[in-house]
Amino acid sequence: MDEVIVKCEGANNKRLDELTEFQGTLKEMSKANYNKLKKLILKQGFSFPFFYWHDPETGKNYILDGHGRRLTLLQMKQEGITLPDAFPCCPVQAANETEAKMLILSASSQFNTITEQGLYEFSETAHIPAEFVEEHFSFDALAHVDFAEGYAPENKEKEIGELGTDNACPKCGYKW
């Protein structure tokens, strides 16, 4: 039988029923991404703690980061997969609900972009097979490519500054 192994630590441990969903409909997870996350958790274990805000008014622990992992773990439990009694968690301070929800947006923001070339080079140097990357992860850089076929820099879209001046208007000589 499959079992989820915890491979990280937090400031404390909490049961899944002690963590309350807090993001509403901000994000959604497709069935395909659920399956990827489930495979990843089974292969690599539960490797990152939940981050939560404890609301002193309600006494609830609202999830700031880990909504998808919590939903995936709850579904895995329904499928008969053995889960630990509690999971590593880290409390995060916020003055109120608005500030806590701003922290959700902070945790969800991606300020760096994973590029197809960068992902390919990272995977190559780390000896991570392209098939594993495609099967277990979800990145914008994978959205429109068959990553397992290999990175083809000659097929990537060029930035404006990378465009040459190979074309010229026969009447005025304007080059583009």
How would you describe this structure to a colleague?
The chain has 176 residues and is of the alpha/beta class. It has helices at 31-44, 67-78, 97-108, 116-125, 130-136, and strands spanning 12-14, 19-20, 50-54, 61-65, 87-91. It folds into two domains: 12-108, Conserved hypothetical protein from pyrococcus furiosus pfu- 392566-001, ParB domain (Alpha-Beta Complex), CATH 3.90.1530.10; 116-162, no CATH class. The chain is built from five helices and five strands; from the N terminus they run E-E-H-E-E-H-E-H-H-H. It has a five-stranded mixed sheet. The chain is extended, with a radius of gyration of 22 Å. The termini are far apart. The model has no long low-confidence stretch (mean pLDDT 88).
List its salient traits.
alpha/beta, Conserved hypothetical protein from pyrococcus furiosus pfu- 392566-001, ParB domain, 5-stranded mixed beta sheet
Layout of secondary structure:
Blueprint: E1 12-14, E2 19-20, H1 31-44, E3 50-54, E4 61-65, H2 67-78, E5 87-91, H3 97-108, H4 116-125, H5 130-136
Parallel strand pairs: 2-4, 3-5
Antiparallel strand pairs: 1-5, 3-4
Strand order of the largest sheet: 1-5-3-4-2
Question: What is the strand tally?
Answer: 5
Q: Main beta sheet, described?
A: 5 strands, mixed
Number of helices: 5
What number of structural domains do the residues give?
2
Q: SS-based structural class?
A: alpha/beta
Estimated helix fraction: 25-40%
Reported CATH architecture of the largest domain: Alpha-Beta Complex
Low-confidence stretches: none
